[in-house]
Design brief:
The protein is α/β, with parallel strands linked by helices and 365 residues long. The protein has a domain of 221 residues: 2-enoyl-CoA Hydratase, Chain A, domain 1, CATH 3.90.226.10. The protein is 39% helix and 18% strand. Helix 2 runs parallel beside helix 3. The longest helix has 33 residues.
Length: 365
């Protein structure tokens, strides 16, 4: 056995001071200089550039595949899409679609596609071309703004006057109510689908009133107005409406209602004014009921439309639609108009400066 004894770990011989563990401060981390952050920024820009190049490539391929028909007066490219009829038929009828709430876009971005009025206006410019022989107005809308509906009706009426050789027919989708019906009577023939809901001839203006609730929670709106402008805060949500205010608004609604009746009376020559007034109660109708009232001419579908145009023009036709191609600017900054539908209804009803007069069926949201 060796004379040297092994000490257990952690024990020291008597008289020998224990060794202190060796410790040294960690090396200071190297500070990141400006070059590091510049490199990160350049990397991000490189990735963005690569993504943009891929996007441009996809758009180019899409352009080649889509077959652009041309460039409209607003500088936007558009495609011609086949809708119905035999594809080998050379005679074309252009479908102009009014879908969703009728409301012109307030998008200020340069190059924006616009709202319903702009879309119809753009399509009518295309319909004026020599290779288009007629117009099919496809309506699937609960209506919308009074002024926007009037503008579209005026555009369609003027087109018919300027192009009497191009027949115009309206075809209804799920609904063509209130302003949707208002624009449709500009056509010379109206066909509704078997399940279409139409009618709702009338005007509405609605607003919320929280006067009673405001009293309970102690909320008061302060409105400073001149004694010479007592109606300046009309439709305030925190106070009751006066009889004079209600009479004023009702008078406006009645006048706009009379305009609606006049438009239907002019557009439906088979109806006299009394018949229009009997139907213009704000009620909605099925396609069968609307035909019995004389509000439409027939119950049918695209096949009905194809047969009607063939009879008017003397030869078979196919139905096409002009669809604006979404450009790079649209994709990058959202310049394209929002698609009609629920978003259009919300914009119409909530994103204005206040309550509006509407040719609108609220049940069709």
């Amino acid at each position: 056995m060796s004379g040297t004894s092994q000490m257990p770990p952690g024990n020291t011989p008597p008289g020998v001071p224990p060794q202190q563990p060796h410790w040294s401060a960690p090396a200071p981390r190297e500070a990141r200089g400006v070059a590091f952050f510049v490199a990160i920024l350049l990397g991000i820009l490189l990735l963005a550039s690569a993504g943009l190049n891929v996007l441009l490539l996809l758009l180019s391929v899409g352009s080649l595949a889509g077959g652009a028909l041309g460039v409209d007066a607003d500088g936007g490219a558009f495609d011609e899409v086949h809708v119905e009829g035999a594809r080998d038929v050379s005679h074309k009828v252009l479908q102009i679609a009014v879908r969703g709430a009728i409301a012109e876009s307030a998008n200020p971005v340069l190059g924006a596609g616009g709202g319903t009025v702009s879309q119809v206006q753009r399509a009518l410019r295309r319909a004026a071309a020599d290779d288009v022989e007629g117009v099919l107005l496809f309506v699937d809308s609960p209506g919308g703004g009074v002024t926007d509906s009037e503008r579209i009706h005026a555009l369609l009426t003027r087109f018919r006057a300027e192009h009497p050789d191009k027949p115009m027919m309206a075809l209804f989708g799920d609904m063509a109510a209130s302003g949707g019906y208002y624009v449709a009577v500009a056509a010379e023939h109206i066909v509704a689908g078997r399940t279409t809901i139409t009618g709702s001839i009338g005007v509405i203006m609605s607003a919320w009133n929280f006067a009673e609730a405001a009293k309970k929670v102690g909320v008061e709106q302060v409105a400073i107005k001149s004694a010479r402008t007592p109606f300046k805060d009309i439709l305030s949500p925190t106070r009751a409406m006066t009889d004079a205010e209600k009479a004023m608004l009702t008078g406006i609604v009645d006048e706009l209602y009379d305009r609606f009746v006049e438009v239907v009376d002019e557009g439906r020559p088979g109806l006299d004014r009394d018949a229009v007034v009997r139907a213009a109660t704000g009620a909605i109708y099925t396609a069968r009921q609307a035909r019995e009232l004389g509000l439409i001419d027939d119950v049918g579908s695209y096949d009905t439309a194809l047969q009607w145009f063939a009879g008017r023009l003397g030869h078979p036709v196919r139905i096409v639609e002009q669809r604006r191609r979404v450009g790079l600017l649209d994709m990058l900054v959202g310049a394209a108009a929002p698609s009609p539908g629920a978003a259009g209804v919300e914009s119409l009803l909530t994103q204005s400066t206040g309550p509006r007069f509407l040719y609108f069926w609220q049940g069709g949201r």
